[in-house]
Amino acid sequence: MVLRQSGVPATMTALPAAAQTPPTRGLHVITWGCQMNVYDSARMGDVLRPLGFRPVDTPDTADMIILNTCHIRDRAAEKVFSELGRLRLVKEARKTSGQSTIIAVAGCVAQAEGEEILARAPYVDIVLGPQTYHRLPEMVARAARAGGAVIETDFPAEQKFDFLPESEAPQTPGNLTAFLTIQEGCDKFCSFCVVPYTRGAENSRPVASVLAEAQRMVASGVRDISLLGQNVNAYHGVGPDGDIWGLARLAYALAEIPGLSRIRYTTSHPRDMDDALIAAHRDLPQLMPFLHLPVQSGSDRILRAMNRGHTADDYRDIVRRLRDVRPDLALSSDFIVGHPGETDEDFEATMQLVRDVGFALAYSFKYSPRPGTPAAGAGMQVAEDIKDARLQALQKLLREQQDAFNATLVGQTVPVLFTSKGRKPGQIAGRSPWLQPVHVSGPEHLIGQELPVRITERLSNSLGGILEEKKVYA
Ligand code: SAH
Ligand code: SF4
Ligand code: F3S
Fold first, then answer.
1. 34 and 107 housed in the same domain
2. Residue 460: how many CB atoms within 10 A of its CB?
3. Residue 338: CB partners within 8 Å, gap ≥ 6?
């Protein structure tokens, strides 16, 4: 009853009889953007599985193609239209051989530019935002019936997580790492950012649903879970006891799941880094000592203009408190150079913050005006050549820090979770607690285990090492 009221299609609830098993159809999903889009693409596959859709590797063998898009920086829409041009040819070629193809555009560009997509690319059948993909089966049915395009970019009253089928993606054998979305949306409205408009208001999944999904993942072999959210440490889910749980409390509960040896979370906001979460880093060995905590800028003036709600010293203070309880904690961050109003002095403050903190990894971007955001309409836009020069200087410093961090691991013994065969025969590969790929010589049957490795060399984007106590594993 509730399901129907919420507009969830009958197909999702009324497929019990084996006789109704639909024919198998090919589904090809192209994913751009952040890890949440990767998670969403897998969940769209779950939603479409009862209709007979199974993943295929190429668009020309697909009965349905989903383009899951990202709107975070410039030329996002143009990139979508150029990809759609390519997919149109695939659709036409399939049509001449009597096959039909549904083209769907999902994700953040779909949310922001849905009408424009249908106007410019009339061969698109479905446009859907990130909060409506639980309704995909209904949209597929409507597209087939009506023969016209279907657009679903409202923010529905119901929560999609209440209507998604159980995830099947982690059931793939050998999948040792997985993403798990626990929080979505954002109410922070940083001056430069489209996310509050494309993902909607901040919303947390209930604790029981997160724990159940984590348990299923671990039962299927997952050992390393990354909890996802646009502001993941603002998590405030309803607990089984009726209380509101923060991320720290959720982490303690997840740490009780036997076999879950690594827990990560991303992306956190400095404003939500509370004492309880810092204490969890002290108490829980499963919480990996690697934290993505974007600061964006080291200038208080620019942080204020960005509406970030903290100062550069607040950030230094959080990092100090985290390292006090977890001395091996390494940090990664995002930076934006050339936000409107950024002077040479402001940029130097960013460089100084980088020198003070020391990052193991960082992503840095030139400010890109996003339509509809406050910063896009602000005066004092920074010239492109100045942005270029600042980005180059910042990236050089960040690269040096990344290399220096990797170099500190040489000679140390670190736990490596082995996830796959290595590049060369006789090698296996895994990842360190800090996410660097690590290669060693070793037998394939060790894949799936977490073992101590002595790091012997730093390669360009990975580390090489040897298994400790080698004779035990030979
Ligand atoms: N919720 C996260 C960030 C999500 S967006 C946070 O608050 O930190 C990922 C990154 O893209 C941001 O951290 C920012 O560095 C970058 N970004 C977002 N909007 C941008 C814009 N308009 N121009 C350039 N970079 C941008
Ligand atoms: Fe965007 Fe700011 Fe929200 Fe992060 S906190 S998603 S940067 S508005
Ligand atoms: Fe991009 Fe949307 Fe993620 S804009 S970064 S796909 S939240």
1. yes
2. 6
3. 366, 367, 382, 386, 387, 390, 391
pLDDT score recorded for residue 5: 28
| pTM, rounded to two decimals | 0.91
- What CATH number does the domain containing 461 carry? 2.40.50.140
CA of 362 to the centre of ligand 2 (A): 17
Q: Is the CB of 231 under 6 A from ligand 2?
A: yes
Q: Are 248 and 280 in contact (CB under 8 A)?
A: yes
Residue 44's domain is classified under what CATH number? 3.40.50.12160
Q: Note the pLDDT tens digit of each residue in 39-85.
A: 999 999 999 999 999 999 999 999 999 999 999 998 888 999 999 99
List beta partners, residue 332: 292, 361
Tokens of 233: 């440490």
The whole-angstrom separation of Cα 436 and Cα 256 is 26
The pLDDT of 396-402, averaged and rounded, is: 97
CB of 193 within 6 A of ligand 2: the answer is: yes
- pLDDT for the residue 295: 98
Per-residue DSSP letter, 70: -
